[in-house]
Specification:
The chain starts with 8 loop residues before the first helix and ends in a 14-residue tail after the last helix. The chain folds into 2 domains: 54 residues; 206 residues, no CATH class. The chain has 278 residues and is an all-alpha fold. The longest helix has 46 residues. It has 11 helices and no strands.
């Protein structure tokens, strides 16, 4: 052995540190990735579970808010009118069902309007709105009454009832985010058919239409369902007994908007013969 040889311990330590550096970096990166996954997972839990629970409103609270609104509008009410179901108790219809019903009802109601008021253009109307139904492949979504409006001789009752369902269509388009607000249900605020036509004519197929639809918060839908339930009571009470205050409410609009609301929150509800009890 060379007596002048001196082991290079310092260099060995440096080499070992150099060799270990990539592992430390990899471990640090792994820790960061795990932390990010935890943060993202926590956010998803909040938005899809906890936040949903935060927005929950009890039936009792909803009734209280509706009565406060009725007082503000000077509309008659009774405390004994029951509460409606909360969001845990209803069976909400799908976006697809709501959009299909909105378009089908819109088309049939326009034909009924021409049947009732513009007989000279009835066949043109049936062709135009029939093409809309065909374009979106909604023939199977028409009710029996609507099929008669398109193809036969409806009774006066069916023709008039179908005409008014254009107000129901407006509510369904509102639920899907295509209409910003539901204005006060007065004669001055009757639906503008051209507004609905403009929405529908933006689309060439049902899938694209459905992709753009965004179902609003079910709690908001229930807020309106409760309010229109109590609006409807006031309108009916005035009609039957003449002693209720209804302000500028137009009972036909109230009834049709309630039809759409009740139908949407109950997958078993019949469109024409919905439970309109007050």
């Amino acid at each position: 052995m060379d007596n002048n040889y001196i082991p290079n311990f310092n260099n060995t330590t440096v080499d070992n540190n150099i060799n270990n550096t990539p592992n430390k970096k990899n471990n640090k990166l792994l820790y960061i990735i795990i932390l990010l996954v935890i943060i993202v997972a926590g956010g998803l839990v909040y938005f899809f579970i906890l936040k949903k629970e935060d927005s929950f409103k009890s039936s009792e609270k909803r009734k209280e808010e509706s009565i406060a609104q009725l007082k503000k509008e000077n509309i008659s009410y009774i405390d004994s009118l029951p509460m409606i179901e909360d969001s845990h108790q209803i069976s909400m219809r799908s976006k697809k069902e709501i959009l299909a019903r909105a378009i089908a009802s819109y088309a049939a109601s326009n034909v009924a309007i021409d049947y009732n008021w513009h007989k000279l253009v009835l066949e043109d109307s049936r062709e135009f709105f029939g093409n809309i139904v065909s374009k979106f492949e909604l023939e199977d979504y028409l009710t029996d009454e609507e099929k008669i409006v398109f193809n036969g001789e409806p009774t006066d009752e069916v023709a008039i009832n179908t005409e008014w369902t254009i107000e129901s269509s407006k509510v369904l388009f509102w639920m899907l985010g295509f209409i910003k607000d539901l204005n006060y249900p007065s004669e001055a605020n009757m639906v503008n058919a051209n507004e609905l036509t403009g929405i529908i004519m933006n689309y060439n197929n049902f899938d694209d239409f459905l992709n753009d639809a965004v179902l609003i918060d079910v709690e908001k839908i229930l807020d309106y369902t409760d309010l229109y339930y109590r609006y409807h009571w006031a309108c009916r009470e005035k009609r039957l007994n003449g002693n209720a205050l209804t302000g500028e409410l137009l009972s036909d609009i109230v009834y049709e908007r309630r039809r759409a609301l009740e139908w949407a929150i109950d997958s078993q509800e019949d469109w024409y013969n919905f439970d309109s009890a007050t």
